[in-house]
Amino acid sequence: MARERIVKVLIDGATSDLSFTYLVPAGLRVETGHRVRVPLRNRSAIGTVTVLEEIETDNLGYPLKPILGVVSEDPFLTAGLMRLAEWISSFYLTPIESVIRSMLPKPSRGEEEKRKTAKFVELAVALSPEILESFSGRQKKHREALVILQEQGSCPLTELTGTHGVSRPALKALQERGFVTIVDRIVSRDPLGEVEYLESAPLVLNDEQRIVLDQVFESSRLVEAGEKVKPILLYGVTGSGKTEVYLQAIQRTIEAGKGAIVLVPEIALTPQTADRFKQRFAKIKDQVAILHSNLSEGERHDEWRKVLDQKARIVIGARSAIFSPIENLGLIVVDEEHENSYKQDTSPRYQARDIAVVRGHLEGCPVLLGSATPSLESWNNVLSGKYDLTTMRLRIDNQKLPIIRVIDMRNEGKKSQSGPTILSTRLRLAMEQRLAKGEQIILFLNRRGFARNILCPECGYVANCRHCSTTMTLHRKEDRLICHICGFSQLPPSRCPECSSRSIVNAGYGTERVEEILRQVFTEARISRVDTDSMRKKGELRNTLNAFRSKKIDILLGTQMIAKGLHFPNVTLVGILNADVGLYIPDFRAGERTFQLLTQVAGRAGRGELEGEVVVQTYTPHHPSIQFARHHDFDGFAEYELAMRRQFNHPPFSHLALITSRSVHQERAEFSLKTLHARLKRNLPAEISLTDPLPSPLVKSHDQWRFQIVLKSNGARRLASHIREVMKDLTFPDDVMVTIDIDPYSMS
Ligand code: ADP
Ligand code: ZN
Ligand code: ZN
Q1: Closest atom, ligand 1, to C-alpha of 372
Q2: Which is deepest, 295, 325, 643, 726, by most CB within 10 Å?
Q3: Atom 17 of ligand 1 has which residue's CA nearest to it?
Q4: Which of 350-359, 397-406, 693-702 has the highest average model confidence (pLDDT)?
Q5: Residue 191 Cβ contacting ligand 1 at under 6 Å
C-alpha cells in the first residue's frame, strides 16, 4: 500500500471556489499557504495550497498529477491568514482566491516572486602580503579594492566602482585572475534606509493612560492563559495621549516575543504619527515595517518580505496591513477606528477595523480600537457588551478643550452687499488678533478647486461632466473645469453654451478661491494651501507641515488632508469655513461624519500652552451634529444619533447590502438589476427587506450607468447567504457588471 502526500489547490482566477487535488513529489517541502504551480488541462496555473494530507492512493481509482513546483521555498500565508481569508470570503461574498491574492503584494502573486537582486563583489582567495605587494604603482586601485574586500568580506559592485572609485577594467582584471567573483544577491529596498531617527524614551504615563495600559496588559495575560477576551475600545479625547499608550503596549508585546500590527488611516496624510513610531523604536528599526501608499510596489513587497521572514515584528500601515503575515501575533491596534478609509471600496470590500477584530478572535490576540469620536458601530458594541470600554477624558497636562463658536452664516450674507461671504466678521477679527500675536491659524474647507461649479444666471445652465452625473469644478490655475469623479477636464466657456449670455458666474468656494481671498485680506501673512492639487509631489506635504511647525507659515488652509493626527502647539485658532458640506447628502452616516470631522478638526487647536478657539461657520447652526460637537459632547451625540438609527433600523442595528449594476448601456444595467430583484424577492426570508431597483445617487460615472438595490437585515450572515443562493445560478451580460457591497460606507 502506498501512502502519499496530496494537496488541495485553489486555482487563481477561478470564479467559483473550486480546488483540485494533486500529488506532492517526494522531497518537495509543501505546507498549507504555499503558492504552487500545477498542471491544469493542457496549461499550467498558479494556486494556493489549502489542504495537505496523507492518503492511500492505491484505491483512488484514478491517477493524480503531481504539482510542478513551489513559487517560493516558504508558504506566503500563515495558518491564521488562511482562516481569515475563509471568513472574509464568506462574509463579504467574494471568491476566496481573490481574497488570498489581495492579501499578497503584487510582485509575489505570479509564477515567481519578483525580488530585487544586486551584483556583489566577493573575495575569492585568502589574501597574503605577497599578493597585495604584487599590485603596486599603476595597479594601486587593484590593491585598494582587495583591501576593502578583505575588511568587509564583500561589497556591492556599485559601491566599489562608485564610492571607492575602482574602475571597471581593474575589477575585470581581478575577476579574470581569480582574485574576486561577482555574484547576484537578493537585496531589500528599504524606504527608511537613509533616514536616521533619534530614539524617543517612553513617557511617564498619567493615571488615565496607566489604567488603559493595564487593561491591555490584563487582556494579554488572559489570552496567554487561554481565555477569550473582548476587543477594547479606547475612547480618548483629542490630545489625551492615546499614541503614547499604543507605543508602550507595543513595546511590551515585542518584549514578550510577539508581533504587533498598528493600523492607521492613511500614513501619507499623517507623517507625524509614523515618525513617532519610528522614533520610539529607532533602536530596533529593522524590526519595524511601514506600509503606506507612497511606497513603490517593490518597496512594499520588501517590507512585506521582512514580515514574512519574521524579521520585522511591528507593522504600521493602512488597511491592507491587517493582512501582514505575522506569526504569533500579540496585539492589534486600530488608531482612529472611526475613519472611513478602513473600508476598501473595491473588491474585496472589507472593513479593516472589523477584520482586525476577527483576526484577533481567530488568532487569540488583544485588539485595541482607539478614537476621540468612536464609530457608532463600535459604540453600540460597547453598549451591547461585545466590546470593553476604556476612556481618557482629560487632555495631557489638563489643557482645556478649545472654545467652539458657531457662526450663523445666514446673517453674514444679509450684512454684506456682495452676496455670500466665506469669511465671517467674527472669524476675520479672530484671525487678525492671532496674526498680531504671532500665533498660528488653521482653516479648513472640505472642497478643493476654485469654484464648486459655474452657472448661468440667465437660463440656469450648470456645467456638468459629460461622463458623470455631476457638476464640474473650476480650477483657476489650470484654467479648466475638472470632474472630481472621473478627472475629465475642459476649457471653461466664456459665454453660456445654452443661451450665449456672457454673465456666467463662479458659484461656491473651493480652497483655491479662498487662498486668493486670504492673500487679498491678509497681505502680510504667510499662507499655505494643502490639498491634493497643491500637494502632488512626494514629500511636499511633509515639507509644508514641517514649515508650519517651525512657524514659517502663519495660515494653513486645507481640505481633510489637515484634519487628522496633526499636533501644532502654536495653533490657537481653527476656522471651519463651511460645516454644512457633507451634511445634506443622502446618506444616513452624514450626521456622524460631520460630527467626527468637526471634533477632529477642532482637536487641532490649543494643543500647547495657549488656549484654543474654534470658529465654525454654518448655514444650519442648530443641526444636532454641530451642536453636540460644539459642546464636546460625544456621549450626547451618540445617544441622540443611535436613537435615530434605531428608529429607522439603520446600522448598527441592521446590516445593509448594496447591490449595484453598471453598464455603458442604460437599459441593460437597469434590466439586469430588475431580473436580480425579482429573484431576490422570491423566497425572501421574513427578516430581510429590499428596495426596488433605483438609479444610484450618482447615476452616471465614468460613462457607466448605475442602478442599485439595498437589502437590509438584522443578521449579516442570513443576508449574505440569501444573496449567495440567488447569485449562484444567475449570469449577467458581459457588458453589465454587478457588485455586492456588504456593510457599505458609500451609498452613491
Ligand atoms: P492623542 O493621540 O490622544 O491625540 P497624543 O498621543 O498625540 O494624543 O498626545 C498629545 C501630546 O501629549 C503629544 O505631544 C505627546 O507626546 C504628549 N504626551 C502623551 N502622553 C504624555 C505623558 N504621559 N506625559 C507627557 N506628555 C505626554
Ligand atoms: Zn444661459
Ligand atoms: Zn466625470
Answers
A1: 3
A2: 325
A3: 241
A4: 350-359
A5: no
Whether 272 is in the pocket of ligand 1, judged by its Cβ within 6 Å, is no
106/101 Cα distance (integer angstroms):
8
Question: Would the CB of 239 count as within 6 Å of ligand 1?
Answer: yes
Q: Structure pTM?
A: 0.86
Cβ count within 10 A of residue 605: 28
Report d(CA 337, CA 358) in Å as an integer: 15
DSSP string, 346-383: SSS--BHHHHHHHHHHHHT--EEEEESS--HHHHHHHH
Q: What is the DSSP letter of 428?
A: H
Looking at residue 556, its amino acid is L
Grid cell listed for 456:
448661468
pLDDT band at 192 (very low <50, low <70, confident <90, very high): low
pLDDT tens per residue across span 78-134: 999 999 999 999 999 999 999 999 999 888 887 777 777 778 888 888 877 777 777
CA 389-393-396 angle, to 5 degrees, is: 125
Q: Which three cell numbers stand for residue 507?
A: 458659484
Alpha-carbon distance values, 472 to 262, 413, 591 (Å) = 38, 25, 25
**Distance from Cα 516 to the centre of ligand 3, integer Å:** 26
Tell which residue, 286, 276, 325, has the closest CA to residue 31: 325
How remote is the CA of residue 440 from the centroid of ligand 1, in Å?
20
Give the pairing of strands 180-186 and 117-123: antiparallel
